[in-house]
Amino acid sequence: MNFIQGEVSANHVNKIGIVVSRFNTPVTEKLEAGAIERAKELGLTEDHMMLVRVPGAVEIPMAVQLLLEQGCQGVAAIGAVIRGDTSHFDYVCNSVERGCTRLQLDYKKPVIFGVITTENAEQAYDRCGGKKGHKGKEAIDTLFEMIDLHGILNKQKL
Predict the structure, then answer these.
(1) Cβ atoms of residues 21 and 58 within 8 Å
(2) What is the pLDDT of residue 12?
(3) pLDDT tens sequence across 92-104
(4) What's the rounded Cα separation, in Å, for the pair 29 and 1?
């Protein structure tokens, strides 16, 4: 059996994008800060990152597409959608997920879904450095691993 797995490493990372929704800013600012901090911990400089802020989660896929077209090897899509009293939550979550998944497949580059979707604000805060970890940092780890895996698989004949 041929086992292949990428590594969380900046060795093959030249240019990444980070798209952050401004809606639910107290949460998304923490997710953004964690993502940037983690990328730097892994050895990336700000010169190798493109940060784009968009009004809300639904706008994330368009910004992701533009970054992929600008040569980013992959993009971390970051946002926070917190359930309210209407079905709007479901439409927003489905829209941004479908858009990010489609772009990942169309462009054959990693688009990491770092959009947290929670029932309430407490759950959101738990996921931006609280009891449930830091989803912004985790998105960067996943992005780096997938960029590495992308490079490995493109070089190998299976």
Answers:
(1) no
(2) 86
(3) 999 999 999 999 9
(4) 43
- The pLDDT confidence band at residue 119, using thresholds 50, 70 and 90, is very high
Q: Which of 12, 48, 88, 134 is catalytic?
A: 88
Respond yes or no: is residue 88 known to be catalytic: yes
Reference 23, options 14, 31, 13; nearest CA is 31
Token readout for 47 is: 């010169």
Per DSSP, helices labelled H in 42-120 are: 60-69, 88-107
6-40 residue pLDDT tens: 999 998 899 999 999 999 999 999 999 999 999 99
Q: CA dist 22 to 1, 25, 28, 36, 104, Å?
A: 45, 5, 7, 16, 22
